[in-house]
Amino acid sequence: MMKAIIEKLPISILDTFKLSNKDIMHQIYDLYKDKRDCYIDEDNYLFIGGQDPVCFVTHFDTKHKFLPKEIKRDKLYGVTKYSSPTGIGANGRSGVIALLYFLETTNCSALFTLGNQNGELGAKAFVTSEAFHKYQDKINIWIEWARKGSNDYKTYNYHNDEVTKIMNEAKFYLPDHSSHSDVEVLAQASGVIGINISCGYYKMNFKDEYFISEILLTNIQRIEKILGELSKEKRNCVYKSDE
Fold it and tell me: Class assignment of domain 2-238?
């Protein structure tokens, strides 16, 4: 099954990490511009519209100063560990893998941002855009792929009890609501819950950051199984600040 997911990807896992922000943005745009409703703002985001009531989200930008020219691929306890001497940039780029898979297998919408690492600037630009105003009423849930670890998700102080129930039953763990990410901006602007899913990377933003592909691919399968339930109706949210 893992092989079947990898075979669906129109860009290889290695190229997902090696390409510059602008190069990967334009490569994805070129893949879908004749098939989908596409909006590109080179400084902020690439949005690809779809008919399914879900929008997947990730970001291109990383904290690392250099692109990974050399990527090491090692076996670690039976799984595949990707790393680079200069930092692999898995915080964000692992999510690109997930979005490409869902673009190939569903009619979802997809939002790729820049500036996530600098105050969610791309997401903030997107929620003022023509694309957001055209599609926001069609979207029942935002699902971001940019979270570290293996089996948790975050909602950043926005809550929907039914989504929490579905995620708990699927054995995803909600650790806390601290920190920030793009789906927080999207939830605030749309009133629809956003969840950020673990992508299998560790030691976030450090040079020894690493990515385990099997964790991401397993979570893709787990979300696939509950996607219809998560997105079958508008998942409105309420804001509850941490006590």
Answer: alpha beta
